[in-house]
Request: fold
Amino acid sequence: DSSNTKLPFQAEVAQLLHLVTHALYSNKEIFLRELISNASDACDKLRFEALDHPELYEDQPELDVRLTFDKAARTLTITDKGIGLSRQEAIDNLGTIAKSGTKDFMSKLSGDQKADAQLIGQFGVGFYSGFIVADKISVESRRAGLPAEQGVRWVSGGAGDFEVADITRAERGTSITLHLRDDADEYLNAWKLKQIVGKYSDHISLPILMEKEEWKEGENDQPGDMVKTGEWETVNKANALWSRPKKDITPEQYEEFYKSISHDYEAPLAWSHNRVEGSTEYTQLLYIPAKAPFDLWNRDKSAGVKLYVKRVFIMDDAEALLPNYLRFVKGVIDSADLPLNVSRELLQESRDVKAIREGSTKRVLSMLEDLAKKQKTSPESGEGKIDVGSGESVPAPEPTEAVTDVVDKNAPTAAETAAAAADESGKYAKFYAEFGAVLKEGLGEDMGNRDRIAKLLRFASSTSDAVTVSLADYKARMKDGQDAIYYITADTLAGAKNSPQLEVFKKKGIEVLLMTDRVDEWALNYLTEFDGTPLQSVAKGAVDLGKLQDEAEKKAAEEAAESFKPLLERLKEALKDKADDVRVTTRLVDSPACLVVQDGGMSTQLARMLKQAGQ
Ligand code: ADP
Ligand code: MG
Reply:
């Protein structure tokens, strides 16, 4: 057959396939979740394209996913009536990895199977996970709208290459047949398959069907066996998880749903599920992950919130739904008000989307405030009064719209119940270690919520190596007469702590916040004061310790300035291309000299960063 072509996998795919079959071995059954989720995505895509082209449904408007297996042939087949694949799409989508950051991801793999398995899980191996249990996969498909003769068969043994051939296929959509490995017998069993569907795919809004079986006694001394009846039954709940009442959803189901949309192995730190009513109506189910994805800093990575309109999937990376500094949040927003054919451009302008974005932002911030409140504070940060794990109920945030529980307003949510049961005390620190630097971007990005974000920030300080000091903690510990919050930025904690600019503060016992995140310098430009107290970099301008400096010290400094005048003039002359000014200072105790930046000038730290970036 001349249409039969053998093609090599993209190098990254070949590499990934090797890893998949080795590293993911201990969590084999996720292959079914991935293939069902692809089938569901394909149906979502069909629905979406059919909004403008209803003829794509052909004569088959009902969408479902069917699981069948053949014990004798040792095959398991997943069939959908979704959008299908053209020949070229099969080549492109099943032979390469289009995800952004693929190269970056590959370079992070260490060869340590356990660590790699975690990374691969996050990356989402998707279709290729079939090769965990299969030594050959055969995909037959026809894209919606194409004639039957333009079907495609894609076959691969999961090594270096795959084959594609033209076929005739009457049915629209895709059938994926796994030729199971010798040790994957367990998936030739209806009970086992139902169990996996229940665990991972219950929330899929499409019906997942399996053929009913019944017991048949064996004849002539042959053992009996289960035989197919030709009748189909739905084996999942088949309604979107977020559309169900909270009280019907277990914490495990919330967690599994999170894992399925995030590809995360770890359970999320927190989630919030609400139906928001008011001028704009929508359901939100938002999660705070426990671990940063490998591509958190990748600028063009897709956002984590999926947009649905009345249960119809619209788009995956709807940046318009949450500000960029909350890009770590995963979840689903389902709007009742947006038009089904909403485009990206329209999203940017829609007033409903603006309301959703504001409401969701507030919701995330209140989830974080909640975690922060339950965080056990470390002894050196002075607070430590909050009794953690007491199961106190979570105060309602102040939403702009009415937020109603899906069924019962006053019952604790599953999240709250789970939260009360689990040890909550370390969660905020965990969150902060992973995402604190991202959150800081919000100071510059989201003026409306700047105060709330500022309260969520935590820093190390000259009295605490741990990143646990809030601005409020700091203020509560300020010395009499101190009228600014002092901070220093540096590349490392050691660098900050040993800076000569800290000497006078140490001597006077004044706490200084130590900032070592790369974004601090930029972000702190946007935070000039906290709760009425100005923030002041100790590396900028002439540090005026105001009332903290006694008269004698001031006088000594003035006299010194006077008597050193000739020396200062000579130094200024010698350094005239390198320094704007040379002056006598009171900020040093042990060091003879230090560099400072003019008030309002670019800090040394920022200057260094720009230099590194080649500017
Ligand atoms: P992802 O789902 O994250 O895009 P996968 O590896 O799971 O990655 O799938 C790769 C691509 O293969 C999908 O994006 C899609 O284009 C195509 N694909 C996989 N399964 C199907 C299917 N059942 N129907 C149509 N296309 C599919
Ligand atoms: Mg997928």
